[in-house]
Amino acid sequence: MSKIxxxxxxxxxxxxALIDAELDEWxxxxxxxxxxxxxxxxxxxxxxxxVDRALGEVPVPEVPADLSRRLAARLASDAPVALRxxxLASDAPVAxxxxxxxxxxxxxxxxxxxxxxxxxxVLLGLPGEPPERGPQLARAPAVTEPRIAPEPTVAELEVAPxxxxxxxxxARAPAVTERVAVDPVPERIAEVMPELSPAFVDxxxxxxxLLLAVDELADSHDLGLVANLEFVEMLVxxxxxxxx
Amino acid sequence: xxxxxxxxxxxxxxxxxxxxxKGPAEATVRAPDEDVQLMRALRAGDTTxxxxxxxxxxxPLLRYLERMxxxxxxxxxxxxxxxxxxxxxxDRYRPEARFSTWLYRIGTNLxxxxxxxxxxxxxxxxxxxxxxxxxxxxxxxxxxVVDARRRGVAARAxxxxxxxxxxxALCLAAVEGLSYAEVAEALDVTEKAVKSLVHRARSAxxxxxxxxxx
Lengths: 244, 214
What we know:
By secondary structure, chain A is mainly α. Helices cover about 50% and strands about 5% of the residues of chain A. Chain A is built from eleven helices and two strands; from the N terminus they run H-H-H-H-H-H-H-E-E-H-H-H-H. In chain A, a hairpin with a 7-residue loop joins strand 1 and strand 2 (about 180). Chain A starts with 11 loop residues before the first helix and ends in a 6-residue tail after the last helix. Chain B has one domain (about 5-125, about 155-210): RNA polymerase sigma factor, region 2, helix turn helix motif (Rna Polymerase Sigma Factor, Chain: A, Orthogonal Bundle), CATH 1.10.1740.10. Chain B is built from nine helices and no strands. Chain B has helices at about 30-45, 50-70, 70-90, 100-115, 120, 145-160, 165-175, 180-185, 190-210. The longest helix of chain B has 22 residues, at about 50-70. The two termini of chain B are about 30 Å apart. Residues about 1-30 and about 125-130 of chain B have low confidence and may be disordered. Chains A and B meet through helix 1, helix 3, helix 4 and helix 5 of A and helix 2, helix 3, helix 6, helix 7 and helix 9 of B.
């Protein structure tokens, strides 16, 4: 923009305000009168108005169909997991542990048991924890009643007291494979399920199946994350695999 | 904003905001009382009200945040985060404040935090990388559509080069249709500052888009 003539200077910012209908009646009449008499300001008003037209042509993103479901899942876990996930994926260095994969049977059973532990903690809460209903999202059949508990939640249980994060790769349909940071499970899960030692659960967290198992429990049985106690108990009855 | 809510202090301001947005923009045409009622219902324990608020406002908020952070995936995460904060802060919502202004303020804070992250600042994206649809599949009579899309892609790129607060102010005022007073509340600045931010942003875009000689 070239230097603004002194006569136009008092009207310069008001050109945008005119476009935005932010001027009172009196000032608007003044600005319009100036614009009609001033070719420079008339051209400028047109150029500024063109910007709004161009902004109207910026592609508009569509809300993904599964966004509400993802929101419900996050409310259920009550943790900004995705943001932590991205942060850890992009911010190096990250403490990373790699172990030899366990036999498939062990991993699946372990993952289911760990999922059951998570589900149980969510479902039952911790001793003395009052129940609270979370929001319902119409497009979130998998998580119909997420809990936002005032007491420690699963998410809080997942917060490690020490920064010993484990970075994993987890594929969560339909999202692409993403790197997930899962903090070591503290001992309080073991309080709920003594048979699942923190060491065992921590090991199994490295298995992709943990989050998938929770999701699949919800999807395949239309349970929500926290709905069907009998089913979860059935899984728990499987117990930790031998040698865990 | 299209005379949003029927109570805009600006009367007939922006009868076709930002060149006449379609789709999610239409979601901004709604009665504020309805939002307030939904928030009151949510506070009273009616969780279906949260779903209604999400359906009403996720589109406009996603559009705003996508223009702020220029990354659709990040914008989606921020939308989720914003609604999580709405849910958690439902008891602190003041009915005298418009829900949309409150939501945009939450979203703006999240976006500005995101943009200040080192990895975000270092990322430079081309128009294609920013998710602009490819300019292909030109059928009969689509030349105007392609031109419009090209202008939109250019505007999106130019918007991304603006300073964050200018970008936020322009998007909120010119695209989302907030009044300067509402933008001021969302950005935690004065109305006078908003007026200046919006004008400087428009002027910069006019130059960058070639609407005006440098």
